Amino acid sequence: MLLSAGFTTFSIHNIPSALIQKKNINSNLLITNVNVISMVPDDPELIFNQSVLVQDGIIQHIGIVEEIDLPKGTQIIDASEKYLIPGLIDAHVHLNDEAELAGYLANGVTGIRNMSGYPFHIPLRDKINNSKLLAPDFMTTGPIINSPGANQNIIQQLVISEEDGRQAVQSQFDAGFHLIKVYSNLTLEAFKGISEQAKVLGMKISGHSPEGLRTKGIPQEKPFDIAWEDSLGRGVISFEHVETIVWHALRDNLDEVKMIKAANKLRSSGESVTPTLLAHKRLVFMADSKEDYLNREGADTINPLVTFFNLEQYGPISIRKSSC
């Protein structure tokens, strides 16, 4: 246990040097001769041979180089035959240590939404917001709030009663979190307390739609303890995973009429859906790899403590030369 605590402390404070904000960095940058992929409505999808002026991290001008009044000392990068796109956003991640931030930036991800908060995410968020750390724009939920049941795990905050739900939201607010993450085991009473207290505190809610107690025969033989519609209009801004619609709203029955009906209800109510289709692709890969998922190429870059806690879920892991 002591070893785990020590490793956790090391891993979340062992920040790659590339992420440390350097002093006296040239704040003016001009990227020339680049092909810009635009996301602006009514713009062409691709604009050739453009120059992009960036000052203090903000794009100030896109056009031909002759139109741009360059500040003195501007760094110029020739991007001939290359392409420039807006930064990517990963709307659902589980950030386990600060070192992962470098991986996001290296792959063009300039914004992430962390959906399982730990205490270290609060000072991390503040360092990023205060420009003390080079990182994607960062937002985080608090710890996942769930009720005991099939989907509970050690990192969740478990609640049962309405008062439990209120206290959980209040404790996360007091800790500095602004967004609540709910999970599928939640009882209706706990969800009522969560949604009402979140409204009082001006906090938003994301997560799975609460299903209540999952007893034998759900969902094929009998309906969920909590109807999917009971989640709507309760302060949830987004459902995380399209499976919460397929499994809960449709009861695993992909009937086109029922799908249209569920979509219309969502449109009327206003909740968004973060599809997280990659998670389903990963599940297929895990099945196809015959329990060898953790030995795939690149898996050695995952925080070893995270790997250890997921051995039962992902399967056995072999000794790698790069492991320590």
Describe this structure as you would to a colleague.
- This protein is of the alpha/beta class and 324 residues long.
- It folds into 3 domains: 28-84, Urease, subunit C, domain 1, CATH 2.30.40.10; 141-275, Rossmann fold (3-Layer(aba) Sandwich), CATH 3.40.50; 279-314, no CATH class.
- It is built from 10 helices and 14 strands.
- It has helices at residues 2-13, 100-106, 121-129, 162-175, 188-201, 243-249, 256-269, 277-288, 304-309, 311-314; strands at residues 28-37, 46-55, 58-63, 75-78, 83-84, 88-93, 109-114, 137-140, 145-146, 157-158, 179-182, 204-207, 236-240, 272-274.
- Strands 1, 2, 3, 4 and 5 form a 5-stranded mixed sheet that branches. A 4-stranded parallel sheet has the order 11-12-13-14. A 3-stranded parallel sheet has the order 6-7-8.
- Helix 4 (162-175) packs parallel to helix 5 (188-201).
- The longest helix is centred in the middle third of the chain and has 14 residues, at 162-175.
- The protein is globular, with a radius of gyration of 23 Å.
- The model is unreliable at 1-12 and 317-324 (pLDDT under 50).
